[in-house]
UniProtKB/TrEMBL annotation:
Residues 46-165 form the Peptidase M16 N-terminal domain. It comes from Imtechella halotolerans K1. Belongs to the peptidase M16 family. The keyword Protease applies. This is Uncharacterized protein. It comes from the Bacteria. PANTHER family: NARDILYSIN, PROTEIN YHJJ.
């Protein structure tokens, strides 16, 4: 259950449109059922085969903090919590336990959020049994008019809500609130923080909560949305049966405006926890909603293209010779009643004035000259090609995607249309959008007063010009604006010469997963699996053990920069921008990847672009390039970031705790500006990149496609078999420290927020005999502990808002198990709650807290998630990689997962808790508020 501020731009709509401009109406998707009952309740039903035997269900309520009176601040969000604490057909925690028994996990498949003008209840349910669907709709029915609002449950929930308030207090929240305040501009929204007023939350009467519920939970401002593997007729019948008799009082619901700015103004926000200087240009504009006509769709399409162009232009500018670090601009709605144009620039304090002036010049170029034809055509090709591929794949939309569309229809009035129909509109509309229409649009929106918000570190504020002088700098017009020029050369082909093909030296079946293993003459191992899950698709994925841990200590830090800098610089004859233009409209994409324990890559394409996919992979593997200007920019930014990292007790706490847990060596020490300055050299980048990718020895490559192996074999032998390879690859063996050996407390007084942050870390390095079985066992233990702690610490005690439980075991590079239980709480409760955690773990092992039902529920949820993932190619890519990289003993993680789950007993769970939590060394870490010690 969360609070959603929804002030992040939705990027779905376009402002400055005349709502009289109706034109030809969009045709509703024929698959969608959208109707209203006589009491005003709207319902949406959309069947989809994406996610077999599952469905997403929502209850939309047009009620949030904006509907509260001055003495009700926080009741909308409080009511959302109470929906899970007892309804007519499910008392107290029965609702959660019922759904968890059917495979739904609280927090993941069962959740809710409240915002300014909406409350949304979210469920993901199994649909094999129509009784589960029936019961779910009964739950929604009870939420409409059957919440019990029991006085004892209300009192228990006060502590939970106040814990949630406490958990969110931080300097980051303060700076985010400063930004939000500028958007809300003194409107009623400004006085309606969703969490509410803590005094009211502590003291409101039960009758006031009931009054709010009775007034605002009305079917006339509600909608039910269901999408998934469902029987449409049965679902519609159930909705009518359960909701048609609900009475409506037609509450006086209305939207509240947010005024536009009347003049330019500047606000400077600073505190000691802000790590960078950033300037936001904010212009409030009318929103676009009720997109139900061709004309409005074309305007939406124009805006979509412009936002993509903004992103591309500033990505390019920010990596060049600029006096600012990063820049961006975007247009969109942040609420149904208001939109905004927001430009943001990150500034170097030593070049503040020059950075602002240069950013203004770049904005001026956009508003004066627009974009080049080359930029526009590339963006249009990408947009149209991507959407066309989606439609041609004949793959129905996921239920979650459809839910987003239903949300937009109900709250914003935007039509839900069929993808094939939308492709027709797109094909006709996209040619109309050219440099002239885009420039006209840009010049029309660059009007009206702006609000400027500068955020900076407290130590920097005194070095800034005075507000009036700074505002003058920001508002000063560039001396001369010339058109943006990009002398971009795009080669006509990816490879000038194709590699000498290798040979397949052996082919062996992997019967357990119906796949084929090929060994190429250069030693590369290929695992090919035929899959019809995604039509007309080729997935290419590879890995090799080593990664950053395989580097010498002197190269460890700098090796982390090699792949990112190369990817920004380009490959062969292509700059990054040239390659992006070459691939416009093409489905082929390849990303090279490196992490601590392995290097690898991932690529994909449609079948018609298979040749491009393999050529692109070979190009990125064999022809890395370095742009020295870009390298200097990255190095400069990295040093600046390291310099801006707060040098305070809170950072010291994190570093000391990290050393305690992981040991202190070259992989765990913080990066300093000096380390970057002295260690990062442009001449090292290509050799370090080639250390990961130049030699194909010991690589395993996974190919998943609906295409036959014989059709792909020429590409495999040419572009994978042609990779350079020799047995000189010899990564360093890194043996991380297992950290602490005995239990201890680690306490510091350094937090800038009023909460205490608690982490209990258990760790051992005992050898793991069967890693996958251990991972499955960890998953079950983690789920059970979380259920127990959640119920005892949150629901019964009201002392925490949430509890994180993580059990992790690995055999790479060495055997290590690290388990963590963490939460935020009031400082005075921290020590007591650690003792309570220990008590709960002991009570599980002694049977005082029974776990049989919990174990059954966690197993059911794990099975549901497993079978949902199994029907994706991503599952098979990961399953095959895990088998080889983690050196699993068998393919049981693919073929016998349900059996493995069912074979795990309560005794197994208790054994893990005893051995790996209660009898394993631990660190009880508490970060208290910095001034708490003196209280």
């Amino acid at each position: 259950m969360t609070i959603s501020l929804r002030y992040i731009l939705l990027f779905l709509f376009l402002p400055f449109l005349s709502f009289n401009m109706v034109g030809q109406r969009l045709l509703q998707d024929p698959q969608l059922i959208k109707k209203k009952l006589s009491n005003g309740l709207t319902y949406y039903i959309y069947p989809t085969d994406q996610g077999k035997n599952q469905a997403d269900v929502r209850l939309f309520v047009k009620t949030g903090s904006l509907q509260e009176a001055d003495n009700q601040l926080g009741l909308a969000h409080f009511l959302e919590h109470m929906a899970f604490n007892g309804i007519k057909h499910f008392k107290a925690n029965e609702l959660i336990r019922f759904l968890e028994s059917k495979g739904a996990k609280f927090g993941h498949d069962l959740n809710a959020h409240t915002s300014f003008q909406e409350t949304i209840y979210k469920l993901k349910i199994p649909t094999r049994d129509i009784q589960v669907v029936d019961s779910t709709l009964t739950i929604l029915s009870d939420w409409v008019d059957g919440m019990l609002l029991d006085s004892l449950e209300v009192e228990k929930e006060r502590g939970v809500i106040l814990s949630e308030w406490l958990s969110k207090q931080s300097p980051k929240l303060n700076s985010s609130q400063a930004f939000l305040d500028q958007l809300l501009n003194g409107s009623l929204y400004s006085n309606r923080k969703v969490i509410g007023d803590t005094t009211i939350l502590r003291n409101f009467k039960h009758s006031e909560l009931k009054q709010f519920y009775n007034q605002w939970y009305d079917p006339s401002i509600m909608a039910i949305a269901i999408s998934g593997d469902i029987d449409v007729n049965k679902v519609e019948e159930l909705i009518k049966k359960k909701f048609e008799s609900k009475k409506t009082t037609s509450p006086n619901w209305k939207e509240h405006p947010i005024p536009s700015y009347t003049k330019d103004s500047l606000l400077i926000y600073s505190d000691s926890w802000v790590t960078k200087t950033e300037l936001n240009y904010i212009q409030l504009i009318p929103p676009l909603r009720d997109v139900a006509s061709i004309n409005l769709y074309e305007q939406y399409l124009t805006r979509t293209i412009i936002n993509s162009l903004f992103k591309e232009r500033f990505a390019k500018l920010s990596k060049g010779k600029t006096f600012y670090t990063d820049g961006s601009i975007s247009i969109g709605n942040f609420l149904p009643v208001k939109g905004a144009i927001i430009a943001t620039v990150e500034l170097d304090s030593s070049n503040l004035k020059k950075g602002i002036e240069q950013f203004n010049t770049h904005l001026g170029q956009l508003y004066t000259y627009g974009f080049t034809n080359q930029e526009i055509e590339k963006t249009k090709k990408n947009l149209y090609g991507s959407f066309k591929r989606k439609v041609q794949a004949e793959k129905s939309s996921s239920s979650s995607s459809l839910m987003n569309q239903m949300y937009q229809d109900f709250f914003y009035g935007n039509s839900i249309i069929d993808p094939s129909y939308e492709l027709e509109i797109l094909k006709k509309s996209i040619p109309k959008i050219d440099s002239t229409t885009i420039l006209s649009y840009l010049q029309n929106i660059n009007l009206g007063p702006k609000r400027y918000l500068m955020t900076t570190n407290a130590s920097m504020k005194t070095q800034l010009p005075l507000n009036k002088e700074l505002l003058a700098i920001i508002n000063s017009a560039p001396h001369k604006i010339i058109p943006y020029k990009d002398s971009l050369f795009v080669p006509e082909k990816l490879l000038n010469e194709h590699p000498l093909a290798g040979k397949t030296t052996s082919i062996n079946p992997i019967s357990e997963i119906d796949a084929t293993e090929l060994i190429l003459s250069n030693g590369v191992k290929i695992i090919y699996k035929h899959s019809d899950i995604e039509k007309n698709k080729v997935l290419l994925s590879g890995f090799r053990a080593g990664g950053f841990y395989g580097m010498d200590s002197i190269d460890y830090l700098t090796s982390m920069y090699a792949e990112p800098i190369v990817s920004l610089s380009g490959y062969g004859n292509f700059s990054r921008e040239a390659l992006s233009h070459f691939l416009a409209g093409n489905s082929a994409k390849v990303q090279m990847l490196v992490d601590k324990t392995r290097s690898g890559f991932f690529g994909s394409s449609n079948v018609q672009d298979t040749s491009t996919l393999f050529e692109l992979f070979y190009l990125k593997w064999t022809q890395p390039q370095i742009d020295s200007i870009l390298f200097d920019k990255v190095k400069e930014q990295s040093i600046l970031k390291a310099e801006q990292s707060p040098n305070d007790k809170q950072v010291d706490f994190r570093n000391e705790l990290n050393f305690l847990i992981k040991g202190k060596d070259y992989t765990t020490i913080p990066t300093t500006p000096e380390m970057i300055e002295e260690g990062l050299h442009v001449s090292d980048m290509i050799p370090l990149y080639n250390a990961f990718f130049g030699n194909a020895f010991d690589y395993t490559v996974i190919i998943i496609s609906d295409q036959k192996l014989d059709d792909l074999l020429p590409y495999i032998e040419t572009y994978l078999g042609g990779l350079p390879s020799d047995n000189s690859y010899n990564p360093k063996t890194y043996f991380p420290s297992s950290g602490f050996k005995k239990s201890q407390s680690f306490i510091r007084y350094a937090s800038p927020s009023p909460k205490a942050t608690v982490s209990v870390v258990f760790q051992h390095d005992k050898k793991i005999k069967d890693l996958h079985k251990k991972e499955v066992l960890n998953e079950l233990v983690e789920g059970i502990i979380k259920i127990r702690l959640y119920e005892e610490l949150r629901e019964n005690a009201g002392k925490v808002y949430g509890v994180n439980v993580s059990l992790n075991s690995t055999s790479t590079p060495t055997s290590l198990s690290r388990h963590t239980i963490s939460f935020n709480c009031a400082p005075e409760d921290a020590s007591q709650l650690i003792q309570e955690v220990n008590k709960i773990l002991k009570e599980i092992t002694t049977g005082q807290l029974p776990i049989k039902q919990d174990l059954d529920n966690v197993k059911e949820n794990s099975k549901k998630n497993y079978h949902a993932k199994r029907n994706t190619n991503a599952f098979w890519t990961k399953a095959i990689r895990d088998y080889y990289f983690k050196k699993y003993r068998s393919w049981d993680h693919v073929n016998n997962y349900d059996f493995m789950l069912d074979s795990i007993t309560e005794k197994d769970i208790i054994k893990v808790i005893k051995k790996e939590l209660l009898k394993t060394p631990r660190v009880n870490a508490i970060l208290y508020p910095e001034n708490y010690k003196n209280q």
